[in-house]
Amino acid sequence: MVEPSTASSGLWRAVLPICIICVLYLSSFFLFVCATNSLIYSTVCLLRANASFCAQIDQNQSFHALQESIQKESSQWTLYGTLSFSIIACILSPIYGSLSDTKNRKLPIVLTICNAVVTGLIIMVASFYQGTQLCLILYLVANIVNGFGGGALILISSCFGYATDPCTDKDQQVQTIALIEASLNIGVVIGYLLCTFIFEVHARIWHILLTHVLLLVLTLIVSLVFLRTRSVAQASRINLRQKLMRPLVDTHDLFVGLRQNSLLVSFLILLIALFFYDLFRMGSSSIIYLYLHQMSFDDAHYAAYFTFEQLATCLALIILAVMRRRWNVNDLYLACVGLCLSLVGPFLFAFARNNRAMIFGAIPSSMFCIYFSVCLRSVIARLVPEQDKGKAFGFVALIQNLDVVVGTITCVEIYQASIDFFPGLVFVFAAITRILALILILYYHRITQAICITRTPQLAIATPVDESEQPILDTEPNETDEQLVHA
Known about the structure:
Elements: H1 4-46, H2 51-56, H3 64-102, H4 106-127, H5 133-147, H6 151-164, H7 170-200, H8 205-226, H9 240-260, H10 264-283, H11 285-294, H12 299-326, H13 331-341, H14 344-350, H15 356-361, H16 363-366, H17 370-383, H18 389-418, H19 425-455, H20 479-486
Helix pairs in contact: 1-3, 1-4, 1-6, 1-7, 1-8, 3-5, 3-6, 3-9, 3-11, 3-18, 4-5, 4-6, 4-8, 6-7, 6-18, 7-12, 7-17, 10-18, 10-19, 13-17, 13-19, 14-19
């Protein structure tokens, strides 16, 4: 039997390096997001006008028509880059999930970080050609290269699989996932803070990208030094063809196992709910950037807004951790609470109309939406067997990569079509997708309750016994009894 202190120390040895990796990687990733959004927007503008004109385009209302044209073209280039990344990443997501289960949990993390370093170097070279067509071409090349590493979603899913391996019960899984989510949000905060600072001092975009690459190198060192390798003897006996077919076989095995336990429908409902929830979130980063620029936000204000939002999200995760320690709150209830609260923010964005108070007022709504992803990952981790966690989280990454593709196409098309009359229409679409996710979660809760009821063992109906005809104890008096009575 494993001592609790030993299990706890083993859990911390697994979780702490993962949290450090998540902080460093997400810091670098959102530096990358800020830099590439600014790079594409400024390059498209410089291809049409000079630098002084581009510096005033967001503040001068007389340039509104040209600004809309530049925003449409910028969103189109963002769409091209996202598609070139996501299509490849969608294909490779199951492969990384299989590597996590058959080789070791560490390998996908290291491969993704190495690929991100190469991608960062390519986009940094592209920044030296800002304002030229070559910059946009290198941007597409960087996204294609990034697709072969799976991107941030593969790394996050691999980190969840690695960290939840030592977990022995539900509470440990929830706490581990909450810790990783908190570290992810801390990384986002640090990334946006660095981005805000660099923009405030009017540094060049390549300075941001250089910081991005240095953070990735540090992340790679941490992963190589502190993550343990769990070797699998079977992996050496698998030939190349079997390795290529392994994701399909693993997918089949996962579905068969879930179906045998009557969990396949539940698993698919959770994945579809996650798909609808992340559809806007994964595909809207560039659209939000353009939308805020249309409302006279500059790059520093854009980064500052998301810094405050992520700080609020960290506070929400602290509240979640306290609730989990003091009360045994159902994960699905918390997921529903997060979804319901997240519906307010998109409507505030949609009808802001240059009202910055409404934009910042959306932060209390968005801070609690993190509950959905935390609790849903916990439910999925408990739903699948231990040996299938990598495949399950690989499917989560696959769904999120599909969200990047479908969400980006949908958000860009809606924004381009409505920018002339109602730019906030895309945020109404966001609210609709989250309502669909909420309906699916409520349906999942209903069918799981029904399964629990049908599987509850029923007591046999008690039949009354007539003691005069069939006494409970049929005994005959003996001599000793009679002697005691007459004594």
